[in-house]
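Lab notes, practical 5.
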Amino acid sequence: MTKSKIWGFAAFFAVSLIAGQAGAREAITLARLPETTSALPVGEARPVWGWVDYCRRNPTECDGARAQAREVRLDARTWQTLVEVNRSVNSAIDPITDEEHWGVADRWDIPTDGKGDCEDYVLLKRKVLTERGFPRSSLLVTVVIDTKGAGHAVLTVKTDHGDFVLDNMRDDILAWVKTGYRFVKRQSQEEQNRWVALDDGVQIPATASAR
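Output from the prediction step:
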């Protein structure tokens, strides 16, 4: 066997070994990805007024056409993207109430000036993830009651591992059942401007608003 063939076989086996190690690491990472359930829609709900007003001013961000419900295939790269976007948006925005910011009780907007409240974090995360290829039907604006009993907005990400929450209150991404929140309503996957009530085992009025 010539020296060139020996080097060729050596290179082949080296590449195969590296690929095998990478595959093993990927398998371990996938095994460590969290798994949860999905929140169950239980009927129609009234859309949040702030969302309606936002869509009136930003119609391209609120396509009302019926679409196929899609989930994100959760793998190591997708999970890392979710973590990075959640953390980067949380650190990029200074929290401020709508009253302080705009002089009104409730206004939803993309926080282009670096200031906003919970729903503004949600809208920016939704926009960034959409630009990175996530289907809009997997990124759902969601209204919850937080641990202090106040209305709050988070972004639910629908995945093949269940529903996960991107929240301005924390950098870690949690399964929806691990947040300690009571889930009230969210966008429909099929129609972004239609909202659905959620059943999380706690009876709450479906008219709660986000803060």
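Observations recorded by the TA: Residues 3-32 form the longest helix (30 residues). Confidence is low (pLDDT under 50) at residues 5-28, 203-211.
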